[in-house]
Structure formats: structure tokens, C-alpha cells
Amino acid sequence: LYLALAEKAVEDEEDDADDIDVASDKVVFRLSDASGRMKRSRESPVMSSLDTNDVFILDDGLQCIVWIGKQSSKDERNKGMMYAHEYLQSTQHPLVPVSIVREGQDTKVVNNFFQQY
């Protein structure tokens, strides 16, 4: 019985790899409370979409980046990771690594995310 369960667990792990969205399906969400309440909206997956006044969730199916603009509100900064987690739970890849990158600390990771666009 235990051997059968272990074999099933390995099969499930291998099947999970097939569920990952292809990297060409990049998703960008803006988190903004400029209207007085927190709102998540989908944006074009281009670097020019990033705005210093907001927080963004960048997802390529292999990783998720929470990009925090320098002028984003405290509430946006505090809730960015929570919104990223909630979003990932609705995808086929809920367990991808999540990184936080602040504006000005833009690393190769962010540049690589937008590279194909």
C-alpha cells in the first residue's frame, strides 16, 4: 500500500510539470488604490506598463515577481504579496517561486521577464 502511494505521488509531481503555463503567456497585474479602494487590473506585458505609483505582479508561469514602485502606497506595498499568492492559487502553477523587487533594484530577473516583448 505504501509503495503504491509513493509511486502515485511521484506521478502527480511529474504531471504538475505539464501544468506550467508556457513562458510566452506572461501576465502583468497592477495593484492600485488610487481610486480609494484596492483594485487589481491586467496590463500589457511590457516594461513601460510599470508605474512608480503602484505595485505590479509579473507572472511567466515559471516565477512570479512582485514589483514595488517607489511611490506606491503603504497599503499597496503591504498587500502585494497577498494578492500575488491569491492570484497564483487560481493558476495551474500555484507553487512557483515569488520574488519581491523594489523599483531601483530592478535586477536581471525583471529585465528578463520583459525581454521577449
Describe the 3D structure:
By secondary structure, this protein is of the alpha+beta class. Helix content is 35%, strand content 22%. It is built from three helices and five strands. It has helices spanning 2-19, 74-89, 108-114; strands at residues 27-32, 39-43, 55-59, 64-68, 98-102. The chain has a five-stranded mixed β-sheet, sandwiched between helices. The N and C termini lie far apart (50 Å).
* Helix/strand order: HEEEEHEH
Going across the biggest sheet, name each strand in turn. Answer: 2-1-3-4-5
- Oligomerization category of the chains in this entry: single chain
Number of helices: 3
Mean pLDDT across the residues is: 83
Structural class: alpha+beta
Strand content: 15-25%
Distance between the termini: 50 Å
- Most strands sheet: 5 strands, mixed
Q: How does the overall form come out from the CA principal axes? A: globular
* Helicity range: 25-40%
Topology, number of strands: 5
Outline the low-pLDDT stretches.
Answer: 1-23
